[in-house]
Design brief:
It comes from Aromia moschata. The protein has 5 helices and no strands. The protein is an all-alpha fold and 115 residues long. It starts with a helix and ends with a helix. The relative contact order is 0.14.
Length: 115
């Protein structure tokens, strides 16, 4: 289900980007290069999560019609961050050692919260 949701979100973000490019004539300077190349949210391994979040925020500001896809993407971001945190706590309980924290989760969530 997560994969299907991610695919739908990536497709919706790509459509929103296409609409923005058609309206503005050129993509914004704050959009993620992998999103401009057509990678979108469906190819996470090639996209920097922070750049993708900034691109989503830019689309949200410039193209309000994209809000459903953007908020769905943000839900996925928060779900993954919570999952990583819970897995870290479980690992700490099992091993007694604190696992390394993922700074990318913290950066992305703080970027979203600044808006």
């Amino acid at each position: 289900m997560f994969l299907a949701s991610t695919f739908r979100t990536g497709l919706a973000l790509s459509c929103a980007l296409t609409t923005l490019v058609e309206r503005e004539g050129k993509p914004g300077r704050h959009l993620c290069p992998c999103l401009l190349a057509g990678g979108g949210a469906t190819k996470k391994e090639k996209c920097n999560p922070l750049d993708l979040a900034k691109s989503a925020l830019t689309l949200l500001k410039c193209l309000p019609a994209s809000r459903t896809a953007i908020f769905e993407y943000f839900c996925d971001v928060f779900d993954n961050a919570a999952l990583n945190y819970i897995e870290g706590i479980e690992t700490e309980i099992k091993t007694g050692k604190l696992p390394p924290l993922l700074e990318s989760d913290e950066l992305v969530i703080s970027e979203i919260h600044t808006v």
